[in-house]
Design goal:
Shape: flat
Helix content: 25-40%
Number of domains: 3
Oligomer: single chain
Distance between the termini: 118 Å
Largest sheet: 11 strands, antiparallel
Structural class: alpha+beta
Radius of gyration: 39 Å
Number of strands: 28
Length: 633
């Protein structure tokens, strides 16, 4: 009890001392040094170096009057203040205020402020200075922090930024200016959408066309020659750089009347659908109205295509073919459009050669090519022969051959597929003695995959091995051009890896390794399973006939066909007549080196033949050379 009283008395004493200290002293006991008066915009009589900033948002000739009026007004405005000296009028014409991009005069003015050349900035409104809140407030604060500080005077709003109460009002006005830009952007987008929905398209200047009084595209025959030459040369196998060099030498003119061509300008011609008579509206869009940076429209906004909008210079099929060639140039494809090749006879009948440098073939294309060699599309490779135990033989009908997938992988024939590459095992590579190139083949309906030796010059050769220290070792095979198609053919998930065991067979000098793609192991990345493992496994990654095998905190989930669950492997006789060997094991139809033949699917795409393209190229260049002297006169 006594302790509590003591603590209370100490607290009261401490409070009393604080009150006494804060009574202070008499003002007469202090020497008072007054602060310099704050700058008052309306009463200040000091000499000032003043900069004027003016801006109009478009370079439309009709805006020239606004631009000139702003400059003339502020020249008079500065003259009416005898203590102001005009440094310069910094003017941006045809520039938006929502971004500092291309506002060269504004940036130059700010740099002059930092260099000590300016004491004050005068501008018409907050919206003229900046329509972006961050830019407006940021630069005002930056200028105010300089020594000496630099103020900005906004005439319409009557705001001077060095006044202590200016920032809240400036923030509000800057917000209003930004929101005004936002509203204008929304209105403009709505207007464009309404135009496109009614088939009213923008028609900017385009090589090969002029515009009539209604804005419709009319072929300019002289320019159209250049367009045709560009397309025929690319179809025939010339690169954009080679085409640009040819046009420059011929002195052909661009739409801007230049005679210097670049690969980029050639690519722009090749990718413009208007040359085949179509119009595709909204190929790009602007996500942010503040920075005005456009992006390729990947279904982010509605698009509208009008076919046969105007007269075409080149055929639509040629245009489509060129787009396919462009998209596959990254995979090393060169020359005229490739064809799928299918084996018409022998043990590999119906197998289609995988084209490693062409991404435009679909899974349906591979199926159509495979089916084309059968009289009946339902025809398939021969079924396995029925094998029975004969008298005197061991009866092994109750025995199973254990699946090799349950044993060591390194010494087995296997191939692993992923979205990035295809990797064969060392055992596979060494089955083909000193062979570094192979041809990959698939049978889409039978879900079979095969590789056979070939030379580097073979049409679809891929390097699957490299020689190192006297031996041959597997090499990762890049598969970006075609892996998605293979995955679709086999019904696989692109997120996962797959491993398949193979069987090697050789007869005389002909060898092959063949894989049953239905007998695969599936590896599901742990990262895919981290969010909603059960749902991902059941609904997205695992098909009805595949079940998970093992799982671990740092390992991928391995899954296998559900048919494996109740056995160790196939029975002895079924294994001896494995379906991937059903044809190969029969006499008379071995021929695994049978050459593939082109699958002609021409009705789908009627592309200008190579010989016609070559003839057109020669004729157009000849005509251009004949006309060149007249152009120079």
């Amino acid at each position: 009890m006594n302790e509590s009283k003591t603590q209370l008395k100490d607290t009261d004493s401490q409070k009393a001392r604080i009150r006494e200290r804060y009574k202070g002293v008499a003002l007469e006991e202090l020497d008072f040094i007054p602060a310099a008066p704050q700058e008052n915009f309306y009463e200040d009589t000091k000499e000032k170096r003043v900069a004027v900033y003016a801006r109009v948002s478009t370079d439309d000739p009709r805006q020239t009057s606004s631009y000139e009026l702003q400059k003339n007004h502020y020249m008079d405005f500065v003259k009416h203040h005898p203590n102001w000296n005009l440094v310069d009028i910094y003017a941006d014409e045809g520039i938006s205020g929502t971004s500092l991009q291309h506002r060269d005069a504004f940036i130059r003015m700010i740099n002059d402020c930092h260099a000590g050349k300016i004491d004050m900035i005068v501008t018409k409104t907050v919206a003229r200075f900046a329509r972006n809140i961050l830019d407006c407030i940021g630069y005002v604060r930056q200028l105010a922090a300089l020594q000496p500080p630099i103020g900005v005077y906004f005439e319409t709003e009557n705001i001077y930024t060095l006044n202590s109460n200016s920032e809240m009002l400036l923030s509000f006005m800057a917000t209003m200016a930004q929101e005004e830009s936002h509203n204008k952007s929304e209105i403009m987008n709505s207007s464009i959408e309404m135009r496109f929905r009614r088939g009213i398209f923008l028609t900017p200047p385009l090589l090969g066309y002029d515009q009539d009084e209604d804005g419709s595209l009319i072929i300019n025959e002289e320019e159209a020659k250049t367009v045709r030459l560009v397309f025929f040369m690319y179809l025939y196998g010339y690169t954009c750089a080679q085409i640009a060099e040819t046009l420059s030498k011929l002195g052909r003119r661009t739409k801007k009347n230049n005679t210097s061509w670049s690969p980029g300008s050639i690519l722009g011609i090749l990718q413009n659908e208007r040359h085949c008579g179509d119009v595709l509206a909204r190929k790009t869009w602007t996500p942010n109205y503040l920075n005005h940076k456009s992006r390729k429209n990947k279904k982010d906004r509605n698009q509208y295509r009008k076919r046969n909008h105007h007269e075409a210079i080149i055929s639509r099929d040629d245009f489509i073919a060129v787009q396919r060639l462009i998209s596959n140039a990254r995979y090393g494809n060169k020359g005229i459009l490739p064809e799928l090749h299918v084996i018409p006879d022998g043990a590999l009948k119906g197998f289609v050669s995988v084209n490693p440098r062409w991404a435009a073939f679909s899974d349906d294309d591979y199926r159509a090519a495979s089916n084309s060699v059968y009289d009946d599309i339902n025809e398939s490779p021969p079924d396995a022969l029925k094998v029975e135990a004969k008298s005197g033989d061991f009866d092994l009908r109750g025995f199973e051959i254990a699946r090799s997938q349950f044993f060591d992988t390194a010494r087995k024939l296997c191939v692993t597929f992923s979205a990035d590459n295809i990797q064969f095992s060392t055992k596979c590579v060494r089955k083909f003695d000193k062979v570094t190139y192979v041809e990959m083949l698939i049978h889409p309906s039978q879900h079979l995959f095969a590789v056979r030796p070939c030379t580097k010059e073979t049409r679809n050769a891929v390097q699957w091995a490299s020689a190192e220290e006297g031996g041959y070792y597997p090499r990762n095979i890049s598969c970006a051009a075609y892996i998605k198609t293979l995955y679709r053919v086999f019904g696989w998930k692109l997120d996962c890896k797959y491993r398949v065991r193979g069987i090697h067979r050789q007869k005389d000098s002909e060898a092959i390794v063949i894989f049953d793609m239905k007998e695969m192991e599936m590896f599901i990345p742990q990262t895919v399973l981290e969010s909603g493992q059960e749902v991902a496994l059941k609904d997205d990654l695992l098909s009805d006939d595949v079940q998970p095998f093992t799982a671990g905190p740092k390992k991928d989930i391995m899954a296998y066909p559900a048919s494996w669950a109740n056995n160790f492997g196939s029975n002895f006789y079924r294994h001896a007549q494995a379906r991937e060997l059903a044809a190969i094991g029969r006499e008379g139809i071995w021929k695994v080196s049978e050459e593939s033949q082109p699958f002609n699917d021409s009705p789908r795409l009627n592309v200008t033949p190579a010989e016609v393209a070559s003839s057109q190229i020669k004729q157009i260049i000849y005509d251009m050379k004949q006309e060149a002297p007249e152009d120079g006169e």
